[in-house]
TrEMBL record, chains A, B, C:
Keywords assigned by UniProt, alphabetized: Apoplast, Secreted, Signal
GO cellular component: apoplast
Protein name: Dirigent protein
Pfam families: Dirigent
Main location: secreted
C-alpha cells in the first residue's frame, strides 16, 4: 500500500509536471466563431453605401482610386457590417472597425489593425486583431491579441479567407476565429 | 495513516486540477493604474500647444478641420501628456503616443492604437493598447495587449471615459487600467 | 516510510504551488531570434529601391520629405527585407511589413505597428509587434503581441536598436526578439 501511495504520488507528479507544458501544446480551441464581414470601398460614386474610404496614399496617388504598384502605401479606414452568413443583407451582429494598409510594392499584401464590436443576443464584446495579410493566399492567419466583454482577455488566431470580391469595390471576408486562451 | 496520505494526495490533486481553471476565472486585477491623458487637437490656430494633428482624411476633407460624417476617415496622431489627476497642468508622468482613427459614418467611434510611455519615480515602462472606442458611450473597454519594463508581458483591459471636452479641440480621457496577467 | 511519503507529498505540493508563480517570474526566454531589417524611405528620387513611403503628413507638409518638427504626424508604410545579419544584400528570410508614425513634436519618437512574415528553411510564420519607439535611445523595448505558424500564440518583448543609418533615407534596425510565452 505504501508502494501504491508512492506510485500514486509519482503518477500525480507526472500529471502535474506535464500539466503546464500540456497547456502549451493545447492546440484545441476553447472557443470558435466563424463570421463574415463586408467591405465596400468608396470609389467616388458610391458614397451612400461605401463602408470604407482611402484616407492616405503615397505621393502622386489620390484618395478616390487605389494607388498603382499594388496599392502600396494606401491606408483604408473601414466600418464594415459583420454577419453570421455570407449574405451582405443578413442582419448584422456587429461592426468590423479599423484599418488596413497596402504595404507591398510587388504583390497585394496588407497589414491589418482592427476590432470586431459584437452586439447581438449571442455575443457582446470586442475582439482585436493585428497581422500581416498576404491577400492573394487562399487562407492566412492573423493574431487575435485581445478582447473585452464576452471575450475578456481572450487570445487566439484568426484565419481569413476572401470569400468573394467584385472588382476593387466589394470584398467579403470569412473569418474563422479560434481562441486558445479563453479565461 | 495510509488512508490519510491517500486523502492528502487526492486533495492535492483536486487543488492542482483546479489551479489552472482557477487562473482562467480570476477576474481580480493583479495591478491597477488610473491615469489621465490630455489631447489638444491642432485646429490651425493652436500650433504652440496642440498635442495631436490630423494627418489623414478622406477625399474632399482637409487636415485642419475634422471631416464631416462624424469625422469618418480621419487619422489623428498624438503625443499627449499623462497625469495622475485630471489637471492638464499637473506634472506629467509620461506620454500617451499613437493614433486614433474615426471609423464610423453615422456616429462617433474611433479605433485606437497607442502606448503609454511612463517615466516617473513610481513607474518606468510602456503599456500598449488596441481597441474599438465607441466615443459616445460613457465607459468603454479596450485591450491592453502588452507591456515592457515595469509592465513586462502584462495584459489586461482598460476602461476609458471622456472626463471632459471643450469643443472639438480639447479632450481629457480617464483610463482605468486593470492588469489581469502581471508576470 | 509513511513519513517519507508525506514528506514527498509535501515537497510535491511545494513544487506545484511554486509552479504557477514560477511561470510568472520566469524571465528566461523560451525562444530567441535576432534579426535585422532594412528600411529605405522614398525621397522622390529612389523609387526603384525604396521599401517604404510617407503616406500621411500634417497640414502644410508633403509626402516626399519628412515633415518638420521631428516629422511629427508622418505615417510611413513599409515593406522591408529581413536578414539574418547586418548586410542589406544578404538573402532575405522574410519581410517586415506595417507602419510607423512619428508622434512627437520635440524629439524623434515613433509608434510602431508591424509584423514579420518569415519564410525560410528555419522559420515559417508571422510575429506581430506594437509599441512606442523612442528612436534616439540606444535600445528600446516594444511588445510582441502575437504570432502564427511557428510562432503560434507567442508573446514576448523585442529590443530594437538602430544598427546603422544614412541620412534620413536608410535605416537598419536590429531586433532581438525574446519570447516568454511559447506554447
Amino acid at each position: 500500500m505504501r508502494a501504491s501511495c508512492i506510485l500514486l504520488c509519482f503518477l500525480m507528479f507526472l500529471a502535474v509536471s506535464s500539466a503546464y507544458p500540456g497547456k502549451k501544446k493545447q492546440y484545441k480551441p476553447c472557443k470558435e466563431l466563424v463570421l463574415y464581414f463586408h467591405d465596400i470601398i468608396y470609389n467616388g460614386r458610391n458614397a451612400a453605401n461605401a463602408t470604407s474610404a482611402i484616407v492616405a496614399a503615397p505621393e502622386g496617388a489620390n484618395l478616390t482610386i487605389l494607388a498603382g504598384q499594388f496599392h502600396f502605401g494606401n491606408i483604408v479606414v473601414f466600418d464594415d457590417p459583420i454577419t453570421l452568413d455570407n449574405n451582405l443583407h443578413s442582419p448584422p451582429v456587429g461592426r468590423a472597425q479599423g484599418m488596413y494598409i497596402y504595404d507591398t510594392k510587388n504583390t497585394f499584401t496588407s497589414w491589418l489593425g482592427f476590432s470586431f464590436s459584437l452586439n447581438s443576443t449571442e455575443h457582446h464584446g470586442t475582439i482585436s486583431f493585428i497581422g500581416a495579410d498576404p491577400i492573394m493566399v487562399k487562407t492566412r492567419d492573423i493574431s487575435v491579441v485581445g478582447g473585452t466583454g464576452d471575450f475578456f482577455m481572450h487570445r487566439g488566431v484568426a484565419t481569413i479567407a476572401t470569400d468573394a470580391f467584385e472588382g476593387e469595390v466589394y470584398f467579403r471576408l470569412k473569418v474563422d476565429i479560434k481562441f486558445y486562451d479563453c479565461w
